[in-house]
Amino acid sequence: MAYIAKKCGIRFHPPSIILIYEEENKDRVHQRIMPIRNFSKFSDCSRAAEQLKNNPRHKAYLQRVSLQQLQKLYCLLRGHLQGQSLAQSLEQIQKEQTVDPEEDLNKLDDKELAKRKSIMDELFEKNRKKKDDPDFIYNVEVEFPQDEQLESCGWDAESDNEF
């Protein structure tokens, strides 16, 4: 039997994830409370989210809930356990889920780089125009305004002389 997730949230006391879902062929809405055990302010949110999503008791219900959403809920709980307010936790999660264009990605370790790449991939997929979209236009050409004179590069001038 397939379940359609409608809402997913977190409760701090006692710590639990609450899922509002609907069975596929029925119009009744149900609520499932999944208790969070053995989670502290030092726990890894992504690992805990994977364990919950792969738990045999909850797997069928969480099939249509994204792993990123579960990770965010666990990060909210971890922030609460560390004594942060909800606004502070949300601000910290927002900061972690965005990529600063000025940040030098060459200086990051492999784990952080993979995290930034997954954020960029997710943002790309969200903004990508697909053929099925109503505002899809094939072969768009855009003229970019040039406010300043283009500066030439040394390698660019050398390649022009060769041809």
- Summarize the amount of helix as a percent range: 25-40%
DSSP strand tally: 3
Residue fraction in strands: 5-15%
Class by SSE composition: alpha+beta
Shape: extended
Radius of gyration, rounded? 23 Å
Ends distance: 66 Å
Low-confidence stretches: none
Major sheet: order of its strands? 1-2-3
* H and E string: EEEHHHHH
Mean pLDDT: 87
The biggest sheet amounts to: 3 strands, antiparallel
Helix segment count?
5
Explained architecture:
The structure is a single chain. This protein is an alpha+beta fold and 163 residues long. It has helices spanning 45-54, 67-81, 86-96, 110-127, 154-162, and strands at residues 3-11, 16-23, 29-35. It contains five helices and three strands; from the N terminus they run βββααααα. Strands 1-2-3 form a three-stranded antiparallel β-sheet, covered by helices on one side. The chain is extended.
Task: Give the key terms.
15% strand; 5 helices; alpha+beta; 3-stranded antiparallel beta sheet; single chain; 163 residues
